[in-house]
Design goal:
By secondary structure, this protein is an alpha/beta fold. The protein is built from ten helices and ten strands. It is globular. The structure holds adenosine-5'-diphosphate and magnesium ion. Magnesium ion (MG) binds next to helix 1.
């Protein structure tokens, strides 16, 4: 595309991943600039979770490279990636039901070298997630589905990551709650300059808050461009937006 990619925040080139004989991801290329919110959209089985997990170091890459802030992290173990600022909100992320909201947030520091103070970071997060402040001493099991998703996102932010990877946060949520969660993601990106990668089946809600998007079909990127362009695309409308 003629774009200068030397200074990219995240640059993924020729990514391929297999599970045994199953080719889950094939020669996928994408990049992110610092402060961007981008979406990778695709149907069930397209390879979204595989990509997100490979960025976190949870599945091995077969070929291709992942460059994060100029460093080749393709073979770096997950705990080291966490220390250099990458965090994941996994698909169907679970909070600890018998811990309070505050205790759940503290678990976000697990395995981190203490460069940030969790107490201070949690106080800042309460400003972004007022519902968690209100409920801080309640058991997480008493939160609604949407509130639990907010807690899962906030927990990933306690260690103050630079890149947040979010896997299908809308799964199992009613549309109104999905909107709430996405509006929090939008605030994190627009007001707190957090770089966020969303992977979603729910194309419309995620493209609505994205600058750019990539469309994944059976492990391959078939279309990419500005979010507005993708939302206007006839094929996207038919396949993903139900128009
Ligand atoms: N652990 C696994 N073992 C074997 N095949 C897998 C495994 N995980 C995913 N797959 C396969 O890889 C493909 C991509 O899966 P996935 O990345 O989970 O897609 P998505 O998140 O878009 O639904 C699918 O065909 C899926 O069946
Ligand atoms: Mg998935």
């Amino acid at each position: 595309m003629g774009k200068e990619r030397d200074n990219m925040f995240l640059d993924v080139k020729g990514l391929s991943i297999s599970y045994g004989d199953i080719r889950a991801v094939q020669n996928v290329n994408f990049y992110m600039e610092k402060g961007e919110l981008i979406s990778i959209i695709g149907a069930n089985g397209a390879g979204k979770t595989t990509i997100i997990n490979s960025l976190m170091g949870l599945v091995p890459v077969q070929s291709g490279t992942i460059i994060f802030k100029g460093q080749d992290i393709t073979k770096m173990p997950a705990h080291k990636r966490a220390r250099i600022g990458i965090r994941i909100v996994p698909e169907r992320s679970r909070v600890f039901p018998r811990l309070t909201v505050y205790e759940n947030l503290l678990t976000g520091m697990y395995g981190m070298k203490n460069k940030v103070s969790p107490e201070k970071s949690i106080l800042q997060l309460y400003e972004i997630f007022p519902i968690l402040k209100e409920r801080k001493n309640q058991l997480a099991s008493t939160l609604s589905g949407g509130e639990q998703q907010q807690l899962a996102i906030a927990r990933a932010l306690v260690s103050e990551p630079e890149l947040l990877l979010v896997d299908e946060v809308s799964t199992g949520l009613m549309p109104k709650l999905t909107q709430e969660v996405f509006s929090v993601l939008e605030t994190l990106n627009k007001e707190h300059q957090l770089t966020i990668l969303l992977v979603e089946q729910n194309a419309f809600v995620s493209l609505e808050i994205s600058t750019r998007g990539y469309v994944l079909e059976t492990g391959q990127c078939v279309l990419e461009g500005p979010a507005t362009f993708l939302m206007d695309n006839t094929r996207i409308k038919e396949v993903y937006l139900g128009h």
